[in-house]
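thought: fold this chain, then report.
action: predict
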Amino acid sequence: MEPELYYLRLPKDIDKYKVMLLDATVATGAAAMMAIRILLDHDVPEENIYVLSLLMSEPGVHALAYAFPKLLSD
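observation:
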């Protein structure tokens, strides 16, 4: 099952900020990947996106790292 976007409201100048993406649990990484793609579509540089989670599965971490290698560059 793919995640579904229900609502989106971002500041017009979000591309100028560092963005913390909060996801309580990351199992497959699909929801986080969708959110990251939306941020990238709004010109937020990948290296300015930080994913914070209380619980992440190993496959979820690998999926995010493979799809967005600059997230883990620091």
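thought: worth noting. The chain has a mean pLDDT of 94.
final: tokens above.
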